[in-house]
Amino acid sequence: MKDKDEFLKKMENLQLPEIDPREHPKMVKMAIMNAERSAAFGVWLIVVPCYFLLCVLMYYGFHIRAGWFGSMFALIMGLEKTRGMGFLAPVLFFLLPLICVIINILGITHISHQKIDPVRSKVREFNISLRIKLWNIVLILISLAILFAFISFVMTESISIKN
Q1: Model confidence pLDDT, tens digit, residues 143-152
Q2: CA-CA to 29 of 20 to 30 Å: which in 5, 66, 100, 127?
Q3: For residue range 107-119, what is the model confidence (pLDDT) as tens digits?
Q4: Calpha distance 116→146 (Å, rounded)
């Protein structure tokens, strides 16, 4: 009983911290998008470009002539020859990885805006911070690699056509 009485006495004598509710919203950093959801969505956006690049690497790099690699090339070439489907390759290899980069950057970016000095109302502070989330950063790097590969392919094709 003595321990219980001492505990209650300590609890009654505790000093409560003073919290100013006006200051609290200034300190909360909200993410623009959820990092886990943007990573999951980003994986689905780069599955097809990664599979195609894997097929290209296996077919031309390691000279593996497996059936599914050839069928992927046949599918892409068939879609390119089909009327009205010429936009599919740029969408798959440029637009989807670009969307993946954007949503994953938004998932790890936190923005806050606050007044610095209560006396001078025009003085404000704008903070941008990045959280380090491994999967989001990996997806950003993979998407940038796909974009680089596609842009370099388009540039070399346009140079070789002019020559």
Answers
A1: 999 999 989 9
A2: 100
A3: 898 887 777 777 7
A4: 42
